[in-house]
Write a structure and sequence with these properties.
Keywords: Membrane, Transmembrane, Transmembrane helix
Strand order of the largest sheet: 1-3-2-4-5-6
Structural class: alpha/beta
Organism: Nostoc paludosum FACHB-159
Radius of gyration: 19 Å
Oligomer: single chain
Pfam family, one: Lipase_GDSL_2
Order of helices and strands: HHEHHEHEHEHHEHHEHH
Strand content: 5-15%
Protein name: G-D-S-L family lipolytic protein
Number of strands: 6
Helix content: 40-55%
């Protein structure tokens, strides 16, 4: 072999997993292992959490009460939590921004080694998220994961409007958080005819092919905006192109198994795609 020839970095090879069928196989394998671990009494270590106040901490409403909160009440809670993150500057701060899919992410399933700030609100739209991004302006996140759009589709919003809002979200986050890795996640499919969600008719009016095409355009826009794109869509679809029943509670929201798959994808993606870039940025800062 010529000494001038460049070797193909192993991490670059594995980075191909993020957009291919191998990622699906790896994530599903991890999901099966997690299920077996849980079955035989294994324990999943909880990630580091941000205490909302020094004393006493703000009590996050339980699952039942969350549905009784107004949008404004949720925004107030998120403001308090973001203020704590801004004041304390926790290491490896990672933000989840989005709707109920992000909101309901079980804290014990979030990938470890990070301080997570969940900025999800049930029923959120891309326009709503855009208007409240300033809530966490003062934080210093290492990574911001964004997933938004399904509620826009449910409300009948046109694709062009959704994509325009996404572009504005990307531009805003890139400007306000220039050192953070911005990762836009694909919109997930729905359960189709098997869905039992109360707004089932609205879901059925949205084809999963439309969601898939919207994700393709979203990926293209992300590349142009210089932000990363994590395509979760293939991980959650069955052979009919619908959300797999074993991953959902009602054809729209995820169950624990679904979140295990999402968690596994975040772990793999972070280690392969984000970690080398974050190390490079950190190295520059030390110079």
């Amino acid at each position: 072999m010529s000494t001038s020839a460049k070797t193909f970095p192993i991490w670059a090879f594995f980075s191909l997993l993020t957009n291919g069928i191998l990622l699906l196989a790896v994530v599903l394998l991890i999901w099966q292992q997690q299920k077996l671990t849980a079955f035989f009494g294994g324990v999943i270590t909880s990630p580091e959490q941000i205490n909302v106040n020094n004393s006493p901490p703000v009590v996050t409403p339980d699952l039942g009460r969350r549905h009784q909160l107004t949008y404004e009440q949720w925004v107030d809670i998120l403001k308090q939590e973001a203020k704590v993150a801004a004041d304390r500057h926790p290491a490896h701060l990672t933000i989840l921004a989005g709707d109920s899919l992000s909101l309901w992410f079980p804290t014990e399933l979030l990938p470890e080694g990070k301080n997570w700030l969940n900025q999800g609100i049930s029923g959120e739209t891309s326009h709503g998220l855009l208007k409240r991004l300033d809530i966490f302006d003062r934080t210093q996140p290492e990574v911001i994961f964004v997933m938004i759009g399904i509620n826009d589709l449910i409300r009948g919003t046109r694709d062009e409007v959704i994509l325009d809002n996404h572009q504005r979200i990307m531009s805003y986050l890139r400007r306000v958080h220039p050192t953070a890795e911005i990762v836009v996640q694909s919109i997930l499919p729905h359960g189709g005819e098997q869905a039992t969600w109360q707004g089932r008719d609205k879901l059925l009016a949205i084809t999963n092919n439309r969601i898939r095409r919207l994700n393709e355009r979203l990926q293209s826009i992300s590349a142009k905006k210089g932000v990363k794109f994590l395509d979760l869509y293939p991980l959650f679809t069955n052979t009919q192109g619908n959300l797999r029943q074993e991953f959902t509670t009602d054809g729209l929201h995820l169950n624990r198994e679904g979140y295990i798959v999402w968690r596994s994808a975040l772990q793999i993606y972070s280690n392969i795609e984000l970690k080398p870039e974050l190390q490079r940025i950190s190295g520059k800062d030390k110079k």
